[in-house]
Inverse folding.
């Protein structure tokens, strides 16, 4: 069961469980729900932390792209539907799948902390579940602004 304080159901698939990952995810998820005024709902995120091989398999199956990636999002709702969600029913907003190995590599590549990179993957996945994307430049700017606001409010910086 998901509690109101815990907005993420975290699954470790083919990787070892890690309490630090859970703490980062819960902190970020709670801030996302607060920012988007979803705290009065019973919605939650399903977050799967996994390997590059598993995320590549999912990417190939669902997007027909046969390569590993850092994060995949599988929303349950269209953007327009979210405002009218029944706030009394406990159900997932969607699934976010994150490759922990890719997070580690990107943290090194971008020269910031693992915490920053994992937090960014969670926020990025969350906003995809909320119906945002980054295909068009204006949409990308709006999504990036929302992501950075969450991370800055949590003091999770690029340093």
């Amino acid at each position: 069961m998901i509690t109101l304080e815990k907005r993420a159901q975290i699954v470790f698939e083919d990787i070892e469980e890690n309490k630090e990952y859970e703490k980062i995810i819960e902190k970020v998820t709670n801030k996302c729900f607060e920012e988007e005024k979803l705290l009065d709902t019973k919605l939650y995120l399903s977050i799967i932390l996994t390997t590059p091989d598993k995320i590549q398999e999912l990417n190939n199956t669902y997007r027909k792209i046969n390569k590993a990636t850092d994060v995949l999002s599988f929303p349950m709702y269209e953007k327009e539907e979210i405002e009218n969600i029944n706030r009394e029913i406990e159900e997932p907003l969607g699934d976010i799948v994150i490759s922990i190995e890719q997070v580690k590599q990107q943290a090194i590549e971008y020269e910031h902390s693992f915490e920053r990179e994992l937090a960014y993957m969670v926020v990025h996945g969350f906003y995809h579940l909320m119906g945002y994307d980054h295909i068009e430049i204006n949409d990308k700017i709006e999504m990036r602004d929302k992501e950075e606001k969450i991370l800055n409010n949590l003091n999770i910086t690029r340093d």
The two ends are 36 Å apart (CA to CA). The longest strand covers residues 91-99.
